[in-house]
Amino acid sequence: MSIVNDIRTAFSRRDNALNQLLLINVLVFAALIVLRAILYVSGASGIYNVVMRQFAMPSDLPSLLRHPWTILTYAFTHEGFLHIIFNLLNLYWFGMLIREYLGNRKLVSIYILGALVGAVFFLLSFNLLPVFQARLGVPIVGASAAVTAIIVAAATLLPDYTFNLIFVGPVKIKYIAAVVVLVSIAGINGGNPGGELAHIGGALLGFVFIRQLQAGRDLGRPVQAVGDFVANLVSGRPRMSVTHRSRPAEAPAAKKGGLARPEQEEIDLILDKISRSGYESLSKDEKQKLFKASQK
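Request: output the structure for the sequence above.
Response:
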């Protein structure tokens, strides 16, 4: 089928991280819908809850210890069309900015780390704060923590970048991110406190990730290392090691981590200029340097 070929092609490309994240969420959502319908018509609806326990992350630690993989799978699992549509639209809009300015690897790193930090906020709050003890055991699903991390990361990197919103007009993304965080804080005492706490954890990760990146430290290196390891296993390609007997003199290396080429200080200046005056204020040479820095 052409759909299967399209999916295979999307996952075979190494420069397609945003579409791959979107596709994973959609495929899991579609598979669960089909499974739920099949189980319903076959009179075995109860099995669906058993399946969901393999994806949703529980808030009580004993259950989590039995299903440790859910600390990540929950961030690719949705129930309800509005839930997934809202998350994927935001992932697409803000993910495009992260991919354009920082590259695919940074986008995936922010998504994964946002999901993990959101999970930690959710777990700590439900297990340590008495106000949530009555709800202990309630699971969490959805990419909201990861998507919130990407929203805040984009707003931290490009605070004055403007989106044209329907019925509103041009709005700087720093204000969009601020509204997202405030809504999450306001929702803690509502019907979905776990989800809102996870959002706040993701938002914090997005902010810290960009600040550390601008300081020359890439918090996503462990995620990228694991991704490379898994990719090598799947492709069957061994890691190659190259040694040189002698090396010619070369310019001092950029600081490890963060944005490594061109020089870190030069990239920081370009990002500061974007924050002050917008992407359109960059010269052609500056745009090329920023593009080269994102190709990692």
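Residues 240-262 have pLDDT under 50 and may be disordered.
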